């Protein structure tokens, strides 16, 4: 429990650091977007001012042109004013087009850069969601790892107890066989023949097959809502209760400062409180006792409710068919439940067998890999290092199972040397 909380603290610190980096990057991008928006607004305001000035100049030029035409219709002054007016009109058209493009949503050079920055912010949001998912999975994985380790320890203890019980049983059987041998010294051959015939008549015991029935009924027997028998493990419930209790304590720390949670878009994570190991152990033991009692009560309650619902459904379905039909139907129900239990047990056994095979294969692969490493010595410093004869990779520490494999190699070489010694053929005496 204490180690899990330490690992979670490390994970949360990394998560908080990554979130701070993402937040700093987001603020920087937002400042850039604001700067581009201000630059765009200033450019559009400058363009509007230019349009207003050109419109005023155009109105003045129109008045001057009209005056020149009134004085001299085809004079040089009227031609000059007309030419200037045409240039002003061209400038006005260009400025108005630029203003329309700038006022649109995706117009102007700043809009493209703003769109790129917004895409970068979306990428940061996606990275933040990935971080949240990662730390959530890591938290669940830590809890499952603790419970799996406890289950493995319990399995090892039960195996040791089972081995001791088997040894005791073997000793008792040996003692009983000795007594039976002493008592049956004066037995006759007829009794032996009878015992042999009885042994021949005894049917062979059925081997327990770990293969579950493959065919399961397509439609469920009961078409009603049944309570789920999958109850949360009491150890997980105890861990969650301890975490909730410590989070309540963490709301205000000893200095009176409010604890800052690690914020994310989807979920809030609070840094685990650093609690002394004795206090944590006492709190965990208290919670695990209460959660174990609650789990057992819930299991019994749901199982009883499920059986009563099944009985009521069977009675309602075959209430008018007599006692025999109800008994046969209930027998089918019990058989279906037994098949389901056998299937679950077989799946668990297959899982254990596969896990054992995987462990053995991993050990064999590690031993094969260890045989490829050779011990070397540095010619300058006399430092011992290890080199892979296949890839040339070097390391300072020997790989796993290296010493055992080297001892096996040495034994094989010694046996090979003994076998290769030629035998002397002496002449007959």
Protein described:
By secondary structure, this protein is mainly alpha-helical. Among the domains are: 2-142; 371-413, no CATH class. 72% of the residues lie in helices and 3% in strands. It contains 8 helices and 3 strands. The protein has helices at residues 2-71, 76-103, 109-183, 189-201, 234-249, 277-317, 323-370, 402-420, and strands spanning 373-377, 384-388, 394-395. A 3-stranded antiparallel beta sheet has the order 1-2-3, with no helix packed on it. A hairpin with a 6-residue loop joins strand 1 (373-377) and strand 2 (384-388). Helix 1 runs antiparallel to helix 3 and helix 5 packs across helix 6. The longest helix has 75 residues, at 109-183. The chain is extended and about 150 Å long. The chain starts with a helix and ends in a 9-residue tail after the last helix. The relative contact order is 0.06. The model is unreliable at 175-180, 182-214 and 260-266 (pLDDT under 50). Residues 140-220, 395-419 are annotated as: Disordered. Keywords: Coiled coil. This is WW domain-containing protein.
